[in-house]
């Protein structure tokens, strides 16, 4: 029987799939997973699951997100160039104002 193994590196992290083990029962699968996948890298915990118990839903089974345009959620659709120019202009204006304030204070007016 094949058992899939998921490893958590440190407490609070997500478990990620790290491989599988072949074992006749749960106790042996846990032991094999610990030996093969738990000792090689820092490990907080392991999940060992029978492969036949893992279900999958893919794009052929269901339309994830539907057909609604949600491109506004990703920053790649925004125009940053104009905003960057405004920031640069504002910084230049602030620097010029600071130079003028210093000139007035120093009496160079």
Automatic annotation (TrEMBL):
Q: Where is the composition biased (Acidic residues)?
A: 85-95
Q: What is this protein called?
A: Phenylacetic acid degradation protein PaaB
* Spans annotated as Disordered: 85-109
Compositionally biased spans, kind Basic and acidic residues: 96-109
- Any stretches that span the bilayer, and where are they? none
Taxonomically, which superkingdom?
Archaea
Q: Which residues form the signal peptide?
A: none
Q: Coiled coil located at which positions?
A: none
């Amino acid at each position: 029987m094949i058992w899939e193994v998921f490893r958590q590196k440190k407490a609070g992290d997500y478990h990620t799939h790290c491989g599988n083990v072949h074992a006749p029962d749960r106790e042996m699968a846990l032991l094999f997973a610990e030996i093969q996948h738990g000792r090689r890298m820092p490990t907080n915990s392991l999940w060992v699951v029978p492969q036949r118990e893992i279900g999958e839903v893919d794009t052929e089974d269901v339309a994830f997100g539907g057909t609604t345009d949600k491109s506004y959620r990703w920053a790649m659709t925004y125009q940053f160039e104009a905003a960057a120019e405004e920031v640069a202009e504002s910084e230049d204006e602030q620097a010029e104002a600071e130079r003028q304030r210093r000139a007035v204070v120093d009496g160079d007016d």
